[in-house]
Amino acid sequence: MKEVQEFLKDCGVYYLATMDGDQPRVRPFGTAEIFEDHLYIQTGKSKNVSKQIEKNPNVELCAFKDGKWIRVTGKLIRDDRIEAKKDMLDKNPNLRGMYNENDDNTEVLYFENGEATISSFTEPQKTIKF
User: Fold this and answer.
1) What pTM was estimated for this model as a whole?
2) Is 35:85 a contact under the CB 8 Å cutoff?
3) What is the pLDDT at residue 65?
4) Three-class DSSP category at 46
5) How far apart, in Å, do the first and last CA atoms of the chain sit?
6) Do residues 122 and 67 lie in contact, with contact meaning Cβ atoms separated by under 8 Å?
7) H helix or E strand, kind and range, residue 43
8) 2-129 has which fold?
9) Cα Rg for the chain, rounded, in angstroms?
10) Distance separating alpha carbons of residues 64 and 82, to the nearest angstrom
11) pLDDT tens digits, residue range 8-50?
């Protein structure tokens, strides 16, 4: 899981895909943190992405850097604990201008049954389950 997080952080931006009815939706994200042995991401509950994840928590993300790409699939589980939100915001202080662990908007979610594949055109594919 640490390798997955480091890959995502090295990329800086990854693209998260959700479903909006029968229409896929993709948008850029930047948070990827490990807390209590889970890989977490962060968003706002007021955003459409949050509503889409609530209806269908199965997601996939993708990122590319230096000739390698990663795809991560899994089910996102909302963690409403202050401790989880605080950990995310402490590790990403640039988000504090928009979010606070005590507000009703900040949302952190972790991957359940996550699976990552790291691929390139020159190396064998690697699969990581977490």
Assistant:
1) 0.96
2) no
3) 97
4) coil
5) 6
6) yes
7) strand 38-44
8) Pnp Oxidase; Chain A (2.30.110)
9) 14
10) 32
11) 999 999 999 999 999 999 999 999 999 999 999 999 999 999 9
Residues composing the chain: 130
Buried b (16+ CB within 10 A) or exposed e, 66-93: eebbbbbbbebeebeeeebbbbbbeeee
Task: Single out the residue of 48, 51, 46 nearest to residue 27, CA to CA.
Answer: 48
- Encoded tokens for 33: 């943190």
Q: What is the DSSP string of 94-127?
A: GGGGT--TTSSSEEEEEEEEEEEEEEESSS--EE
- 110, 33 Cβ separation under 8 angstroms: no
Angle at 48 between CA 46 and CA 53, to 5 degrees: 100
Question: Mean pLDDT, the chain, as a whole number?
Answer: 98
Domain boundaries, the chain: 2-129
